[in-house]
Structure to design on (421 residues):
């Protein structure tokens, strides 16, 4: 039998025409069989035998030269996209050419990687689904092994993303996130201008963060003007070593979070212990942790506002610490350094005059970080962008029920945040 070949203006034998329809260039179709569910597997399957096409020259997968000599033939089982309701299994007779330059090498086929067990189009479809579905579900959809799907997606991401492009990067944001339980962390670096994740690396120590600056190179480091970060010594030290011209900008979120933990919560615990014989008062203060640490605007309901008011009215030390927390946030609203400095001096004086030890100690330590706080007037960088990314990272982990391969997880993060440039 023959089928019409519009390209050549004639007809092709049925076996070659079916291969053309299937996109299996360089092959012709032999036998075709269909097996219903339960015969070969739990789902219907179509088996298609693919034979070599004639004795013409074949392209070497090593050097790309066309070779006529054949070394041997081997039958391989290859998965392709499903046909209608059935999984497609190709029984491909794979040719190894006797290349005079490379020796025995597999024939290069446009639709199949040299040692792959799935076609390029199936791999592409798997990678597309992996963008929106967990690996487990994609594997079940195509009836592939979990590790096969993961390997396909990882190879696709490596090819798609390539090495990070640092062209034109001048403003950075650096933050850490929990990789898994047990105090295991990773570091993420973002281009503040484009909101693109540039790099994700294991750990948060100086040596581990240094990998990024080595990748950035001397020219890239020299371009950096400012870096937003938390109060991490490792981040600060590495920026000062590799980008001495860059200004360090300390982020509001982390400073206030540190204030909440070291001042507000410390006072709450101390006051609860001080009035331990007053059960009602102690219970009121002990149960107010999240009321005091949350932003007032984020309290969920009217009852929470009432409870917060009761706690603050009942304890002067907590009232002072809470008011100074709100005043501290105002430092990040200024755009002129002189005004911000005067506001800081007023805040520092009130903290020192409060007589509250945790507050005085925090204010003294925060003085060291003042240049990085005031730098926000010139470079309004917020790692709140990274905090948003950290929340999405948690969603990625939950969707996949965790990642065992850190390198693959980091590729998923980069792919999820390509930037808006």
């Amino acid at each position: 039998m023959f089928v019409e070949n519009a390209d050549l203006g004639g007809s092709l034998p049925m076996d070659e025409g079916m291969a053309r329809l299937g996109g299996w260039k360089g092959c012709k179709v032999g036998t075709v069989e269909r097996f219903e569910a339960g015969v070969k597997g739990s789902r219907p399957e179509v088996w298609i035998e693919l034979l070599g096409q004639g004795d013409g020259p074949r392209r070497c997968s090593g050097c790309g030269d066309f070779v006529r000599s054949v070394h041997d033939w081997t039958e391989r089982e290859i998965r392709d996209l499903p046909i209608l309701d059935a999984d497609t299994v190709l029984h491909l007779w794979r040719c190894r050419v006797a290349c005079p330059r490379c020796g025995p090498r597999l024939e290069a086929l446009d639709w199949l990687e040299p040692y792959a067990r799935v076609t390029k189009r199936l791999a592409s479809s798997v990678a597309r689904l992996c963008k929106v579905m967990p690996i487990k579900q994609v594997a079940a959809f195509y009836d592939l092994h979990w590790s096969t799907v993961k390997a396909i997606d990882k190879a696709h991401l490596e090819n798609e993303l390539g090495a990070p492009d640092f062209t034109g990067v001048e403003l950075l944001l650096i933050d850490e996130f929990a990789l898994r339980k047990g105090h295991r962390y990773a570091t993420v670096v973002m281009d503040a201008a484009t909101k693109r994740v540039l790099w994700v690396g294991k750990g948060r120590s100086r040596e581990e963060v240094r990998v990024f600056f080595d990748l950035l190179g001397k020219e890239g480091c020299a371009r950096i003007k400012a870096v937003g970060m938390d109060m991490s010594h490792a981040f600060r030290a590495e920026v000062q070593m590799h980008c001495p011209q860059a200004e360090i900008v300390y982020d509001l979120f982390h400073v206030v979070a540190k204030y909440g933990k070291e001042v507000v919560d410390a006072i709450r615990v101390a006051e609860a212990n001080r009035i331990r014989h007053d059960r009602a008062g102690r219970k009121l203060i002990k149960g107010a942790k999240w009321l005091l640490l949350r932003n007032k605007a984020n309290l969920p309901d009217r009852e929470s506002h009432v409870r917060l008011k009761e706690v603050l009215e009942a304890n002067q030390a907590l009232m002072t610490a809470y008011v100074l927390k709100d005043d501290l946030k105002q430092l990040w609203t200024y755009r002129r350094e002189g005004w911000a400095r005067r506001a800081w001096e007023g805040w520092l004086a009130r903290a020192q005059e409060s007589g509250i030890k945790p507050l005085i100690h925090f204010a003294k330590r925060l003085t060291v970080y003042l240049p990085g706080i005031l730098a926000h007037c010139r470079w309004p960088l917020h790692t709140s962008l990274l905090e948003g990314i950290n929340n999405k990272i948690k969603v990625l982990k939950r969707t996949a029920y965790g990642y065992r391969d850190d390198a693959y997880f980091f590729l998923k993060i980069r792919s999820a945040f390509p930037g808006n440039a």
Observations:
- Confidence is low (pLDDT under 50) at residues 1-6, 8-12.
- The CA atoms of residues 280 and 286 lie 10 Å apart.
- The chain is about 45% helix and 20% strand.
- The radius of gyration is 32 Å.
